[in-house]
Every structure is written in structure tokens, then in C-alpha cells.
Design a protein that fits this description.
The complex is a heterodimer of chains A (398) and B (449).
Chain A (H helix, E strand, L loop, with lengths): L3 H10 L1 H32 L10 E7 L6 H17 L3 E7 L9 E7 L2 E10 L3 H5 L3 E4 L15 E7 H7 L9 E4 L6 E8 L15 E5 L7 E6 L4 H15 L4 E7 H44 L1 H9 L4 H37 L7 H27 L11
Parallel strand pairs in A: 4-9, 6-8
Antiparallel strand pairs in A: 1-10, 1-11, 2-10, 3-4, 3-7, 5-8, 6-9, 7-8
Chain B lengths: L1 H14 L1 H28 L11 E6 L5 E2 L2 E2 L9 H6 L8 E13 L8 E8 L2 H5 L4 E4 L5 H4 L4 E5 H8 L8 E4 L2 E9 L22 E4 L9 E2 L12 H6 L6 E5 L3 H20 L10 E4 L1 H7 L5 H31 L1 H9 L4 H45 L20 H15 L1 H8 L3 H5 L3
Parallel strand pairs in B: 5-10, 7-9
Antiparallel strand pairs in B: 1-12, 1-13, 2-3, 4-5, 4-8, 4-11, 4-12, 6-9, 7-10, 8-9
The chains are: A alpha+beta (398), B alpha+beta (449).
Chain lengths: 398, 449
């Protein structure tokens, strides 16, 4: 094992070069570890549970002629639901005022006493819970008597998400209570059930997990939510427009999308962001490898005579290789230590200005190891070349 | 003498081809990455109306109640009410003025083989096209009388024209929208400024509507509004919407001179006082605000935290590349120290050596700038083509948003920024190595090893 002292002393002779390498490794660690942290945070965001079985659900919307009366429009809506439910493979269907995950919907600040929470508002048929595929954890589901048929009715029963229940009723006694909207205070919704989890229309909103669902029916609904068996969904989506238009030529089909398409669209920028970040990290590591390789090779050439002398004095090949590997390892160790401090500082800076998690020590350690190995592997090539230097070099005198 | 230094600079670079190329390559990437991210950020919050920026104004009115159930309301509404959109028209001061909002409409093409579909229409006054320099291919905006008394005219885009009529000059033809026939008065080029500066209450990168209808048609009733609606009133019919204090309309004016602007501001203040007399604007100092497109874009903060993070990481990346290059250049100079020593021994002063080194660094900066610009351009092209693919899949529903990288004009690259980064970056990183090499004693290299 080469001794550390001579290696350390020789490094002191080239302070400038050593410091540059230390600094290089430190900065690379700081950036790479934080980049990985941002990637990890973004991946967590993308992989959040929506609360619904995304591979079973799609939505579509229709538009009917304005020359029809409200009764006729309502009848079309009810016929559409009946038609959809009759398609083989459909588990359930519901009208709905806004589509979760879609980016557009209605929201209100709801209050209980002094506690005010923003929430999305969903309304739909009494089958809406089953169509959403969400899990009821307290209370009961809607039934036919609960459904509001008058647009102006401000009293209703409601089922809300657990996240909202915990915020408005931290004591855990939400069931049976009545929430009102914080602005005009005329909505009165009595909580009859709580669902475990559901994401609302706006995935980037802080209140994404707050939803208030009420059962309602009326001629103004134009959107439909459908839940199918997973393997049938694509077929059903392919057939549905033709089916509806054939049944009633007055209907204008307004487009459809599956939950997964909505998620893809919402998260497309995040995925691109992750791709860009990973590319930067990769390029950075390649550059690090190339520069360590280049400088390592240069070092070997500069010290050709010294290496020849060592070999002439009896050093084995592996000892020569070991010498360069240890030299790198020493510098890398100092660099990684400095880099860890820098990484944590940078992480704090990012945390203060952007919505990210702090850099975890485990991610930092993994990055350390990674960078160390990349550098060590790069030094190997010149080190092996060094070992090939013939001891006869020492006997020359030019 | 300078040419001589250039020549020996090039020779010196060629003497260590691998190390020299490595430095240039590393610096180029270090330059390209932050330049790319800065370009993206610039494009994202660009102002499509830069030329007319000083004379266009978005109007905001503080019509919300002073307080609701104990909560004090201070936020300025982003849009205005329907009554205000009609009331403001009394003023003839602006050169052009237009109210606007979005509505979803059923399109039933006459051709039997085209299925009816839904499309979003922009309801606006005829001045819209003059305000924003929207280019016409055939015909023009509807007659000004249609803005006062609703008539069923429409302006459509070229793509819409192709889709519904199969192309051609269809001015004068009719199209069924929401079961009513509208006459085409003009066909415009496909026009979708990004960000969609005139709205900005929803997705800033939404595609602009393909159908334009006179705003006055709203009075004829029952449109399905598809934009952002907010406020403190509750309504249960479209008619109630037209008289409520809910805000859902954007208002733009063109005021060409400072006098015009002052006189319009005076009108606004009189208008608000009039309205206060009939019970509206009940608060202490209801304000009216006029913002230019750039101020409005800034106000709505059309930016993205991810982009800001990329810019930070981009410059850190440059820093690492600079440190890397510094190491490599130092190695390169120590390698050619022999030659330096020789020159010193032959009488070159420290300053001559320094000058020679600077020329060489300059050459490196030059090459890095060239390669860096090329790389930036390549990255931008790659990103644009990616976004084009993503967007093609989303095409179908006209309301789908365009992926944010679609913003790029193929030629966009901030050359000035790249030049600045190249020069500053290269010279900074070479500071230590060149200092080090100039300090070398000539005698050291004259000894035989």
C-alpha cells in the first residue's frame, strides 16, 4: 500500500493544481446532488396518488341545441347516462360539473367557525362516488333522495375528502356537521360521508386534495364521467362518439379524455424538466470524467522520469497504479467533504426560494459515491499507462 | 505584432491538440447550457406586442365590495363586469377599444360529411383586430355598427376556414354557430400570440380562438361562457350574469399620446363617480388601473419556478465548467512551460509572455463562443421539435394548450448574452493558470533534466 505521507507531500508541491481539482469535485458534487434532489422531488410529485383508478376512468362532454327546452335538454342528459351505462364493460357513469385533474373547475372557500379552507366543488349524479372509484371511509354514500334538482337550492348533503375534513374539523367530528361558503354564506352542506383521498381539478394548487361533492341533476350539465373495466376502456372510448350521435343526431360531441391523458398533459412539462436535469447531470459527469482523464494523463507524462526511477528502484506495477489512485482518492476525499458542505448550503438556498424538499443525507451520500467512482474510474486509465513506463527511462539522461 | 501573437497562439493550441480541444469543448457546453435556459425564460415571458407596447393598455377596475362578511377585500379584480364593459364604450377618447371574453359554441358545418363540433369563440368588439394588428387574408372586421347593435357576423381563422369550408375566399358565406347563422366578414391568418397576453386569466399559453364574434351578441342571450369567472355575486341565469358584479371580461384600449391617456384617466374617474351615485363601487377609493402589455405580463407573473431553477443550475453548471477548464488549461501551460522559459531566456519580458497568453486565451474564448452558439442553437432546435411532437398529439380539441417550448422562433438565440458569457467565463477561468505560468522562472527550464 503506497504511503500517504509522500503522496500528500508531493501534492503540497502543486497546491494550485490540487486546489483546482478539489474545487472541481466539490462543485460537481454540490450541483449533481441538488439536481438529483430536484429530480426526486419532481418524480414524487408526478407519482402522487389521484385517489381514483386512473386506468378505468374517462370523461366526455356534449352540447345540445339551444332551441330545446330545459326539459328536453335534461331528458337528453338522462338518456345519455342510461345509454352509457348500458354499454358492456361500463361499471358506472355520472354527470359531473367539472373534471378532476383537468385544470378547470369551480372552487369556493368553505368555512367551519373561524377555519376557512379553499376547496373544489364537484356535483354529479348519485352514482358519482362509484364512478370516481374513490374509497368511502366514514358515513354513507348518496342515494336518490339526496339529489338536488333545483339549480337555486343552496342546501344539500355532501361528501368531502378526508384532507378537507381534517382541516375544517381537527377534532375529527366532521360527520353530521354543516359547512358553509365563506363569502356569501348561503350554501349549507351537511356532511354525510368522508372519502379517503381524491385530487381535484388543479394539480398545482395547494388545496388539490380538498374536494366537496354534492349530488345534483339539471339541464345545465354537459360533462360526463365514465368508469369502465380497465381492459374495455379504449374500446368504449373509440365507440362512444358514434354511439351517442347515432342515438340522437342533435348531440354535438365535445371531446373526451382519460384520466391518464389528463395526467400526462398536466405533467408533460415536469417530465421534460426532469429529462433536462438528468441530461445536465450526465453531461457534467462526462465532463468531470474527461477532465480528470486528461489531467491524469498529463500528470503521468510530466512525471515519466520519476515513475521510471521508482520502477528502477524496485516498485511493482501495481504500486505505481496504486500511487495515482491514492493521489486521486486523497484529493477526492477533501473535495467531497467540501462539496457536501456546499451541497447543503445550495440545498438551503433552493429550499428558501423554490418549493423543494431539503437534500437528504442519503441522496448526498449516493451522489458522493457516484462522483468518487466516476473520478476513480477516469484515473485508472492514465494510472495503468503509468505502470507501463519502463524502468530504463531512469537510465537516460536527456 | 498582434498577428504574430495570433500565429504563435494558434501554434500553441495545436501543440496540445487534445488538451486544447478539451478546454474549448468544456467551455462551449458551459456557455451553451445557461444560454439555452435564459433563452427559454425570455421566450416564455416574451411580449408579443412589443412594438405597440407603449400605447396599448389593459384596464382594471376595483369593483369588488370593500368587505364581505368581515373579510376586507383588497385584491384588484383581473377582469371587469358586463355593465362596465358597456358603460366604458361611452368614451370616444381611445383610438381603439375592445371588450372581450370566451364562449363555447356548437359549430354545425353545412357540408354533411363534417360532424358538428364544439369550438371556442372570442366575443369582442371590431376594434380588436386593429388593436392587436391581427392580419387579414380576406375581408375585414365586421362593420362598426355591429358593435352597437348586435348582428350576426363573424371573423374566422384560416385553419377554421379550411376545416369548415375547405378553404378559399368565403367572405359572405354563412356558418351555423349555436344553431344561428353568422355571416363571415373576414378571414384572418392563424393568429395565436404566446403568451396569450390579452387574457392571462387562465393558461398563459392557451391557443387563441379561431372564431371571433361581435361582443354585442352577448345581449341576445344564452352563451356558454368558457373563460374565468369570479366575484361575489351568485347568479342562476345568463341574463343575471349580464347585470351582475361578477367579472369575466377583459378590456383593452389604445391611447396614442400622453394627453390622450390623461384625458382617458379623467374619464375613468368621472365614470366611477357616476357609478358610485347608483350604488356601485361602494368603497373608499375605487381605483382604475391602466397597464401596458409588458406591465400586465409582469403583473401576472408569466414565469415558472422550474425555469428559474434551471437558470440557477445553468449558471452553476457554467461555474463547474470554468473550474474544469481552469485545471486543464493549467496542465496545458505547465506542459508548454519549456517554450515559455525559452522565450524568457531569450529576452521576452513578463508582460510579453502575459500578452501572448492573453491572445491564446482570447482564441479559446473565440472558439468557445462559436461552438457555444452552435450548441445553443442545436439545443433550441431539439427542444422545439420535441414540443411540436407533443402538441401534434394534443391537436383535436381547439382549446388544448400549446406545450411551452412551442414558443421558439427557429432563429432565436441570444448572441449577445452568449458572447458576454464566453468572454467573461474564459478570461475568468484562465486568470489563475495564466498568472501561474507568467511567474515561472526562465532558468528552471534551461537546466537539463
Amino acid at each position: 500500500m503506497p504511503e500517504f505521507r509522500p503522496i500528500f507531500l508531493s501534492l503540497l508541491h502543486q497546491k494550485g493544481r490540487s486546489l483546482l481539482l478539489i474545487f472541481q469535485i466539490a462543485l460537481t458534487l454540490a450541483i449533481t446532488s441538488n439536481t438529483f434532489n430536484v429530480v426526486q422531488t419532481s418524480l414524487e410529485r408526478i407519482n402522487r396518488d389521484t385517489g381514483m383508478p386512473d386506468n378505468e376512468i374517462f370523461n366526455f362532454s356534449i352540447s345540445t341545441s339551444s332551441e330545446l327546452t330545459s326539459e328536453e335538454q335534461l331528458q337528453i342528459i338522462l338518456d345519455t347516462i342510461a345509454l352509457v351505462k348500458s354499454i358492456p364493460g361500463v361499471i358506472n357513469a355520472s354527470i359531473i360539473n367539472a373534471i378532476p385533474l383537468s385544470g378547470s373547475g369551480t372552487g369556493f372557500p368553505f368555512k367551519n367557525g373561524d377555519q376557512i379552507s379553499l376547496s373544489a366543488l364537484f356535483s354529479g349524479s348519485e352514482t358519482i362516488l362509484d364512478t370516481l372509484g374513490v374509497e368511502l371511509i366514514a358515513g354513507r354514500n348518496f342515494n336518490a333522495e339526496d339529489v338536488i334538482r333545483d339549480r337555486n337550492e343552496t342546501n344539500s348533503v355532501t361528501i368531502i375528502t378526508q384532507a378537507l375534513a381534517e382541516q375544517l374539523y381537527p377534532q375529527g367530528d366532521a360527520l353530521g356537521k354543516t359547512i358553509t361558503d365563506a363569502m356569501s354564506m348561503d350554501l349549507r352542506y351537511t356532511i354525510i360521508g368522508i372519502i379517503k383521498h381524491m385530487q381535484g381539478p388543479w394539480l398545482s394548487a395547494e388545496h388539490v386534495n380538498h374536494s366537496v361533492i354534492i349530488p345534483a341533476e339539471g339541464s345545465t350539465f354537459s360533462r360526463f364521467l365514465v368508469r369502465t373495466e380497465a381492459e374495455s376502456r379504449n374500446r368504449i372510448m373509440g365507440d362512444i362518439e358514434a354511439l351517442l350521435v347515432q342515438n340522437n343526431g342533435d348531440i354535438v360531441f365535445n371531446g373526451m379524455s382519460s384520466n391518464e391523458e389528463l395526467l400526462n398533459e398536466s405533467y408533460a412539462p415536469d417530465k421534460l424538466f426532469i429529462a433536462v436535469l438528468l441530461s445536465i447531470s450526465l453531461v457534467l459527469l462526462i465532463i468531470t470524467a474527461m477532465s480528470i482523464l486528461g489531467i491524469g494523463s498529463y500528470n503521468v507524462i510530466q512525471r515519466t522520469f520519476q515513475i521510471g526511477v521508482r520502477r528502477a528502484l524496485g516498485a511493482r506495477k501495481y504500486q505505481i497504479v496504486g500511487y495515482f489512485m491514492v493521489e486521486y482518492a486523497l484529493l477526492a476525499f477533501i473535495g467531497l467533504a467540501l462539496g457536501s458542505v456546499l451541497a447543503l448550503q445550495l440545498s438551503r438556498l433552493i429550499l428558501a426560494n423554490f418549493s423543494m424538499h431539503a437534500l437528504s443525507l442519503s441522496l448526498l451520500s449516493v451522489s458522493c459515491l457516484f462522483i468518487y467512482l466516476v473520478g476513480q474510474a477516469s484515473v485508472l486509465h492514465p494510472a495503468l499507462n503509468a505502470a507501463k513506463i519502463s524502468p530504463a527511462i531512469a537510465t537516460r539522461s536527456d | 505584432m498582434f498577428l504574430y501573437y495570433l500565429k504563435i497562439g494558434m501554434l500553441s493550441l495545436k501543440r496540445t491538440p487534445l488538451l486544447s480541444s478539451l478546454v474549448i469543448f468544456i467551455m462551449s457546453i458551459g456557455i451553451a447550457v445557461p444560454s439555452l435556459f435564459q433563452s427559454i425564460n425570455d421566450a416564455w415571458s416574451a411580449n408579443p406586442m412589443e412594438d405597440k407596447d407603449p400605447v396599448l393598455f389593459r384596464l382594471l377596475l376595483q369593483n369588488s365590495p370593500a368587505e364581505v362578511n368581515g373579510t376586507v377585500i383588497t385584491d384588484l379584480p383581473l377582469q371587469i363586469t358586463f355593465p362596465d364593459s358597456r358603460g366604458l364604450r361611452q368614451s370616444k377618447i381611445p383610438t381603439y377599444q375592445a371588450a372581450m371574453t370566451k364562449a363555447s359554441m356548437r359549430v354545425r358545418p353545412q357540408a354533411p360529411d363534417i360532424l358538428p363540433f364544439s369550438a371556442t369563440a372570442r366575443m369582442t368588439d371590431g376594434d380588436f383586430f386593429a388593436l392587436f394588428d391581427v392580419p387579414f387574408i380576406h375581408g375585414g372586421a365586421w362593420p362598426a355598427s355591429s358593435d352597437d347593435i348586435a348582428q350576426r357576423h363573424t371573423v374566422i381563422t384560416s385553419s377554421f376556414n379550411d376545416r369548415v369550408f375547405g378553404g378559399g375566399d368565403n367572405v359572405g358565406r354563412q356558418i351555423s354557430l349555436d344553431e344561428k347563422l353568422y355571416t363571415v366578414s373576414g378571414i384572418i391568418e392563424d393568429w395565436s400570440p404566446l403568451p396569450q397576453f390579452f387574457d392571462l386569466t387562465g393558461n398563459p399559453l392557451a391557443a387563441t380562438e379561431e372564431i371571433f364574434l361581435p361582443f354585442s351578441n352577448l345581449e341576445l342571450g344564452d352563451f356558454i361562457l368558457s373563460g374565468n369567472i369570479s366575484g361575489f355575486d351568485r347568479v342562476s341565469s345568463f341574463q343575471e350574469m349580464l347585470s351582475s358584479e361578477l367579472v369575466w371580461i377583459q378590456y383593452w384600449v389604445q391611447l396614442d399620446s400622453p394627453e390622450q391617456k390623461l384625458s382617458y384617466e379623467a374619464f375613468l374617474s368621472d365614470y366611477i363617480s357616476e357609478q358610485q351615485a347608483i350604488g356601485r363601487f361602494q368603497r373608499e377609493n375605487p381605483e382604475s388601473v391602466l397597464m401596458t402589455p409588458s406591465e400586465w405580463i409582469e403583473f401576472r407573473k408569466v414565469t415558472d419556478e422550474r425555469l428559474e431553477m434551471l437558470i440557477l443550475l445553468g449558471f452553476l453548471f457554467l461555474l463547474v465548467c470554468m473550474v474544469n477548464s481552469s485545471s486543464v488549461i493549467l496542465a496545458k501551460y505547465l506542459k508548454s512551460a519549456n517554450e515559455m522559459g525559452m522565450r524568457r531566456a531569450l529576452g521576452a519580458g513578463k508582460t510579453d509572455i502575459y500578452f501572448q497568453v492573453m491572445v491564446e486565451i482570447g482564441l479559446i474564448a473565440g472558439f468557445s463562443f462559436l461552438l457555444g452558439s452552435l450548441l445553443t442553437k442545436i439545443f433550441i432546435t431539439l427542444l422545439s421539435s420535441y414540443s411540436l411532437q407533443v402538441n401534434l398529439e394534443a391537436l383535436g380539441a381547439l382549446d388544448k394548450s400549446i406545450n411551452f417550448f412551442n414558443l421558439f422562433a427557429p432563429g432565436a438565440s441570444p448572441l449577445l448574452l452568449i458572447l458576454a458569457i464566453s468572454l467573461a467565463g474564459t478570461f475568468l477561468m484562465a486568470l489563475y493558470p495564466s498568472f501561474r505560468i507568467c511567474r515561472i522562472q526562465p532558468s528552471y527550464f534551461l537546466k537539463a533534466h
